[in-house]
Every structure is written in C-alpha cells, then in structure tokens.
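Standup notes
- DV: blocked on the single-chain target, sequence here:
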Amino acid sequence: MPNRTVFFVSDGTGITAETFGNSILAQFSAKPRHVRRPFIDTPDKAYQVVREINDTAGREGKRPIVFITLIDTEVRSIIRSAHCLVLDMLGTFVEPLEAEFGIKSNHRVGRFDDISKSQEYTDRIEAINFSLAHDDGQSSKNLDIADVILVGVSRSGKTPTSLYLAMQHGIKAANYPLIPEDFDRGALPSALLPHKKKCFGLTIAPERLREIRHERRPNSKYASLENCRHEVSAAESMMGREGIAWLSSTHKSIEEIATTILRDIRPDRLIY
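- DV (later): unblocked, structure below
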C-alpha cells in the first residue's frame, strides 16, 4: 500500500491505540507509514495534529487512517474534523459498556493515572529488575522466587521473552543458557536442578539459529550450521530427558511464546 499513512492519536502514550490498530491492520497485506502522536490532551495539540493529517492527505492524495483513544469530547471532535477516516476505539467500546453496566466510565486520561499507588505497576518493576539481574545466567541467586526459568541454547529467544513476561505480566523470569559444557556432561547446570519444575525450554531451527548467530559472530564455529545443529539437538535431548516442556521459537512471536509459558507454568496469570 504505497503512499498511505496511519496515525495513532491518544491522550496517553498511544500504546493501546497502536497495539489495537496494528492488530487490525495485520489482517491486510499492507505496509502503511505509521505515525504515533501521544499526549494529545488539549485543543491546541489536537489542531496541530489535524494540520499534520490534512497535510499528509494532500501530499498522498488519499485520506489517512486515524486510530484514536481520546477521552475529551472537544479534542475528539477536533480530530474528527480532519480529512481522514477516524476509528474511535474508546467511543466504539466504552459507550456500549456504559449502557450495559448502567454506569458512566470514569473518563480517565491514559492508563497510567496515579501509577505510584498501583501494586501491579510495582510488581512489574520488580519483575523487570529481577529479569535483568538473571539474564543469560548472570546470577543463580534467588532462583527460588523466580516464576519461570527459561533454558535453551544461546540466541534462541530467551532474553526478549523473559523481559516481555516481566514488562507485560509482572512475571519474575530468569533465563539460563545451555552451553557445550552442559552437553558434554549430559546434565543440566547444577544451579537449575533444585528448580527444574520452574524450567521451560526454548529451541529453534538450526538454520534460523545460524542466521542469528552469523549476525553476531560471522564465520565463527559458534555460528556454523554444523555447530547449531549439534547444540539444538543436544539441548532438545537434554530437555526431553529432564522432563522440561519446550517449544520452538522459530516461527512464533514473543507474545505467543509468553502466552504458552503462562498457560503451562502460571495459568493463574491468565485470570485476573
């Protein structure tokens, strides 16, 4: 889809508008230009965005698509005056819910209002700090309080998954690499043995692993296809012997991997 722009306009961070909008856009084989405009919470800011939207429409010859999450009715009205297709997510869902619940929404701007009093936010910060401290086997301290320990060969997706679990779900996720010395011994690292029930494995297709490692260390044994095949095979065999559930990250998004882990390790986190 050449010469087409999508705006995500919000009175908060814009994350909700962009996430929801991208989920819808993923249904189309199109790659429009994305523009996020957060913290649009006054008429003056709204008029600035309208000018930008109208300039874009004139330049591209097609009206932009604008996903909005805006509470203030005046700000929403101003954005709607632009030459664009407006998709109002809060209006679409909040008003029918008000009718169904029989109560008015609190019209709170953004999702992070008074965040200092949120236990959920505090838990997420603690989980992020834990995951950073226990990234790539840096520390084996306090693994007893980990919610999950991700294991797998180097570059199989453990770090991004552990950080996603921490940031999105407040899960204390450690990750521990399986290295050639572990395969030579034919056993899990000793630090993991008392916590085997918390372990969840990630594997990856050797060909994909080679591509990722080659970017990091080109033309090395570490990145060779033969070595990647050996490590992946040895890791999968070890996880099978130890009874550790695992999945391949080759064709799965971080969101899919994290949801699978929550379902298998912490199903309580899927109900809140």
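- Follow-up: The mean pLDDT is 91.
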